[in-house]
Write a structure and sequence with these properties.
About 5% of the residues lie in helices and about 35% in strands. By secondary structure, it is mainly beta. It has 2 domains: about 1-280, no CATH class; about 285-320, no CATH class. A 7-stranded mixed beta sheet has the order 6-7-17-10-20-21-8, with no helix packed on it. Strands 3-5-4-9-19-18 form a 6-stranded antiparallel beta sheet, with no helix packed on it. Strands 11, 12, 13, 14, 15 and 16 form a 6-stranded antiparallel beta sheet that branches.
Length: about 325
């Protein structure tokens, strides 16, 4: 069957006849890669988080995400993802002597919520994909005329063109280039992995049993919500900012602080490590979904993560589960 795929290039529309295969194009970053730094501490924006960077201050912020505004209260139905169109080199990093600062003209927060996000790597701008009983993946598109798809799609990416399809309850994605979309190629955050960064692919989607081909670009660094911790300690700095103290038990990872400041945190033990695992969970669950270790819970003080996991396995064995 002959299929037509439209590629949009600034000022040019090219319609290519595709009989089999696809072609790849090298992509360039479409947004400014500036680090958003400020040199004068008196000029920091209100209600913002900053990280010390050289002789200045780098603002921690997000632009593309799937949730409403800066909300931090969420339930199990939320599909929370953050998208960057670069390799994330400009995400502010807190490590070593660098500190996390907060500025506000009106109040000091009673708590600092650190929502941790899984690093799902470079993909095409889809997240939180749902697996059906046959191990195929989809996301809701136009169910009840809602915009639920926004919890799954980076609306500033090339793949957002699929949201223009109508009368489709579930939009399945079966293949990206030669890569079959299945449990082996999808992360725990519902993100397609294994794609070459900064390449264009043909994505094969299904509306019902009919297929649709769309161009998709693997230039979106994707992060999906994985766990949440809280911190309470801070220091006044005899300035217009406070220093937020990050608890020592925090693991290296990516954190959204109070819904507005996105940072990369490198734990003291990981400084200098070229192969940091940013996705190692802090809260450990057993195979039945029960918490066996939570470093923020006082009841787990005095034991290590390894001891807690070992104890849980012993308990399961003794109960004959």
């Amino acid at each position: 069957m002959k299929k037509y795929l439209k590629f949009i290039i600034p000022g040019i529309v090219v319609v290519g006849l595709i009989i089999s295969g696809f072609f790849l194009t090298t992509l360039s970053d479409s947004k400014d890669n500036a680090k958003n730094e400020v040199e004068d501490i008196e000029k920091l924006e209100d209600n913002s988080f900053y990280v010390t960077s050289g002789s200045g201050y780098q603002k921690a912020s997000i632009k593309d995400y799937t949730f409403e505004g800066n909300e931090i209260n969420k339930d199990s139905s939320d599909n929370r993802a953050i998208f960057f169109d670069t390799e994330s080199e400009n995400i502010p990093t807190v490590s070593g002597n660098e500190v996390l600062l907060y500025t506000s003209k009106t109040e000091v927060p009673e708590e600092f919520i650190f929502e941790r996000f899984r690093d799902d790597g470079i993909s095409i701008g889809l997240a939180n994909l749902v697996k059906d009983e046959s191990n195929h993946y989809y996301f809701p598109l136009s169910d009840n005329d809602s915009d639920d798809y926004k919890g799954y799609v980076d609306m500033k990416s090339e793949v957002s063109n699929v949201t223009k399809l109508t009368d489709v309850t579930r939009l399945y994605i079966d293949q990206v280039g030669d890569l079959k979309v299945n449990p082996d190629s999808v992360t725990a955050g519902g993100v397609i992995k294994g794609l070459e960064p900064n390449k264009s692919y043909v994505g094969t989607f299904y509306t019902g049993t009919n297929y649709q081909d769309f161009r998709v670009d693997s230039n979106i660094h994707t992060f999906t919500s994985m766990e949440e911790m809280k911190a309470y300690d801070y220091e006044f700095m005899h300035s217009n900012v406070i220093k937020v103290k990050i608890p020592e038990y925090f693991k290296s990872g990516y954190y959204l602080v109070n819904g507005i400041g996105f940072i990369r945190y490198i734990a003291e033990k990981d400084i200098g490590n070229a192969n940091i695992d940013y996705n190692s969970p802090m809260i450990i669950y057993d195979e039945y979904g029960f918490v066996v270790y939570d470093p923020s819970d006082e009841s787990y003080k005095g034991i290590t993560e390894e001891q807690a996991v070992a104890n849980s396995k012993v308990g399961i064995a003794e109960e004959g589960v």
